[in-house]
Amino acid sequence: MGKTLDRRNRILIGFTLFSMFFGAGNLIFPPLVGLQAGSHVVPAMVGLLVSAVGFPILGVAAVARSGGLDQLAGRVHPVFASIFTLLIYLMIGPGLAIPRTASTSFEMAVSPFIGGMGASTITVVQAVYSVLFFGIAFYFALRPDKLKDRLGKIMTPILLLLIAVVFIGCLVSGNQGVAEPLEKYQTGSMVKGFIDGYQTMDTIAALNFGIVIAMNIKGMGIKEDQDVSNETIKAGGIAGLLLVVVYGCLAYVGAITSGFGVEATNGADVLTFIVHHLFGTAGTVLIALIFFIACLNVCIGLLSCCSEYFSLTFPKLSYRAWLGIFAGTSLIVSNAGLDAIIKVSSPALSMIYPVAIVLIILSFLPGTLGKNRVLYRVVIGLTTVYSVVTVVISLFA
Q1: What are residue 93's phi and psi, to 5 degrees?
Q2: Number of independent structural domains in the chain
Q3: Residue 315 in domain
Q4: Which region holds residue 365: left if phi is over 0, alpha if psi is between -120 and 50, else beta?
Q5: Does residue 385 lie within any of the structural domains?
Q6: Among candidates 257, 254, 259, 287, which has minimal Cα distance to 272?
Q7: The domain spanning residue 192 has which CATH number?
Q8: What are phi and psi of 372, to 5 degrees?
């Protein structure tokens, strides 16, 4: 019988994985779905939970069962595995996800307090903030094997407590009821929720988080690969349960906010409105802390994953050196502005995401089908062609 973690440490690893998933996108999409879906919030959230929780947790399990992303993608072809894995790490690294953590946290945690400053001054403040933000993330990411202590024990409980304050505030305060759904949620709300959940990027991130989670599990005395794989899957289940609960709370907040007739284009506006309604000026500080902690957690996790992978793949540079490269590059990219980052990176994300989903699904096919190279090559090839063609057409439409 294999060695297992005790309940306390298993929960701690699950909290750590949750903190690596739960960033800005996870904060803003559920309340926006709740606001826009209104009385149709339940079916909309079912769809969102499938794409924003189901596929990511399946991704964690798929990589754990396969022995790593390179092994899973290698079922298609070794060249495909190298290119696909590299693209994934660049997307969740300095190409989009890491810079976005700094840009989004600045918009939510700092901008509300410096609104009266001139544009040039704000630019300088953002640059200084980025240096401090990535400096903190760099420090915490120096010991990826200690993330369970720094994220799981400290940061995640604080974040969950702050979100609980907002949720409980909505429960105990008088509300205006729930509005009727907007036009796009009046029919097919479950499908629309599924598409919205697609934008959290967690399915792609899930393919890479295993490398750091496995390191933390091994640091707890679990050495055999199969035992590490089993504990990684169990941690994924705990993280998934936490995501479901937190997403449900945030969707409820959004649905309640719809009763006030609020018009918002993103979930950040929804949360900003409701915390100000509930807590007044103190709400600004509350929402700033929530976004800062969530974004910092994800930034630390992503920096650790990317640096660990590149230090193993390109060992001429150490983990610390790669960490410095990714933190420095992300610092520069983040100051280009969130809109510019998304504009450049979104087409690449749209091409990679469907391939990641199909790769995960194929890994769960029974028996020899789950490892059939011909099947992998045909299905992944067709998916890749379809994704590339679709994106190209949309760019020139």
Answers
A1: -100, -125
A2: 1
A3: yes
A4: beta
A5: no
A6: 287
A7: 1.20.1740.10
A8: -75, 110
- Greatest CA span in the chain, whole angstroms? 65
3-state helix, strand, coil in the chain (%, to 5): 85, 0, 15
pTM: predicted TM-score of the whole model, two decimal places? 0.85
CA atoms of 265 and 95, how far apart (whole Å): 24
Distance of alpha carbon 382 from alpha carbon 144, whole angstroms: 37
User: pLDDT for 326-384, tens place per residue?
Assistant: 999 999 888 876 566 666 666 777 788 889 889 999 988 888 888 889 999 999 999 99
pLDDT tens digits, one per residue of 49-64 = 998 899 889 888 888 8
Domain that holds residue 303: 7-338
- The model's pLDDT over 61-112, given as tens digits with 9 standing for 90+, comes to 888 888 888 888 999 999 999 888 888 888 888 878 888 888 888 888 888 8
If you write DSSP's letter for every residue of 66-113 in order, what string do you get?
HTSHHHHHTTT-HHHHHHHHHHHHHHHTTTTHHHHHHHHHHHHHTGGG
In a domain, 104, yes or no: yes
